[in-house]
Amino acid sequence: MALQLMKLYVGVTTTVDADPENTRFFYVTGAPTAAGATLNIDAAAFFMDNGDPNVELPVLEADNSYYNVYVNGVLQMEGLSTYTPGITAVGSLAIDVPAGGPGIPMSTPVVLEVVNFTPTASNTVET
Questions:
Q1: Sequential DSSP letters for 86-103
Q2: Do 116 and 65 meet the contact criterion of CB atoms below 8 Å apart?
Q3: 35: Cβ contacts below 8 Å, ≥ 6 apart
């Protein structure tokens, strides 16, 4: 009999779940923000989806998260905002209002949406 390479066969099925956690934060501007200025919103200035006050902005999980900013119901471009997670006086959202355009009027709603994914995987081995 000729020599042959012996191989082990193992059939594996992998199931991956993303498990997103979507958290929304709300703020209403108390004063206008002029074009060329920055609107800074502290973590404690936001209120939660249920109307309760907020005290902390969540950490963005590395490679498994994103955030969106809506001003007056309109999704804003990524480069206009800076998100800093953390508690009151640490956590914040800064929105740079481009020069030469309109500013943000008083009483404008700002919505911050933070989505973190917690991926899980399970393997089923065929025998």
A1: EETTT-EEEEEPPTTS--
A2: yes
A3: 97, 98, 99, 100, 101, 102, 103
Alpha carbon distance 65, 19 (integer Å): 11
Tokens of 50: 């249920």
Query: How far apart, in whole angstroms, are the C-alpha atoms of residue 111 and residue 93?
Result: 10
pTM exceeds 0.85, yes or no: no
Where would I find the beta strands (DSSP E) of 6-60?
11-17, 20-28, 38-42, 47-48, 56-57
Q: How many residues does the structure list for the chain?
A: 127
At 51, the amino acid letter reads: G
Q: Is pLDDT at 1 greater than 80 in this prediction? A: no
Instruction: Give dist(CA 29, CA 24) in Å, integer.
Output: 16
Q: Give the residue-averaged pLDDT of 74-103.
A: 95
How far apart, in whole angstroms, are the C-alpha atoms of residue 48 and residue 19? 21
